Amino acid sequence: MTKLVGIYPGTFDPLTLGHIDIIKRAIKLVDELVIGVAVNANKTPVFSLEERVEMVSVEMSEIAQTSGVSIIVKPFDTLLMRFAEEVKADIIIRGLRAVSDFEYEFQMVGMNAALNDEIETVFLMAGARYQAIASRLVKEVARLGGNISSFVPENVVGKLLEKFPTV
Ligand code: ADP
Q1: Is 32 within a domain?
Q2: Which are the contacts of 11, defined by CB distance < 8 A and separation ≥ 6?
Q3: Euclidean distance between the first and the last CA atom of the chain, given in angstroms as a whole number
Q4: pLDDT > 70? residue 167
Q5: Pocket-forming residues, ligand 1, beta carbon under 6 Å
Q6: Which residue has its alpha carbon closest to ligand 1 atom 27?
Q7: Which residues pair with 8 in a beta bridge?
Q8: Pairing of strands 32-38, 70-76
Q9: 96 falls within a domain
Q10: Partner of 39 for a Cys bridge, out of 21, 30, 77, 108, CB 3.0 to 4.6 A?
């Protein structure tokens, strides 16, 4: 039997409980999940690529163990479709939040399909309590000294406090 490989790309600056919820849903669909951490020069991330890969990896070991699905965390600096081909992905997984993500994701699907029409993009929605979480807003709350513990894993709370110390 051939195994189904999924790729979940993102910036993960930082990893949130919204991302984790999507990952937990995604592993129900695939035999192997590659989490692609984008260098993303456009967004000038707060966390370095190494920090973001590390943050995701730390949270994945337990999820991989309990689910039995192989989860691989990999940085990438190429076109998403090239990276998807490289890791032999069958599907690309993206998360959708309300309507705001739709326009961008709609365009991405169109562009990606023009590059390779064999790899499908599958959209998943997070559970109700995680739907509104966005890395950008988490950073804003952290910067202003607000409580972020219901948005990100405990380890990430610590990392955000190091970046945005509240004195
Ligand atoms: P990108 O820069 O590619 O948008 P992100 O790290 O912001 O990377 O997000 C990665 C993926 O996870 C995207 O598909 C995004 O829409 C999705 N996502 C992020 N937060 C949530 C959430 N709370 N609910 C559902 N999907 C989410």
Answers
A1: yes
A2: 37, 38, 40, 43, 45, 52, 135
A3: 57
A4: no
A5: 9-12, 16, 18-19, 22, 94-95, 97, 101, 126, 130-131, 133-135
A6: 95
A7: 35
A8: parallel
A9: yes
A10: 77
Looking at ligand 1, which atom is closest to the CA of residue 12?
Answer: 6
Mean pLDDT over the full length of the chain: 95
Per-residue pLDDT for 43 more than 80? Answer: no
Protein residue with its CA nearest to atom 21 in ligand 1: 18
Q: Is the pTM of this model over 0.85?
A: yes
Three-class SS state of 70: strand
Known catalytic membership, residue 19: yes
**How many domains in the chain?**
1
| Ligand 1 center–CA 129 separation, angstroms | 15
Per DSSP, 3 falls in state P
61-95 pLDDT, tens digit each: 999 999 999 999 999 999 999 999 999 999 999 99
- Domain of 59? 5-129
What CATH code is carried by the domain that includes residue 100? 3.40.50.620
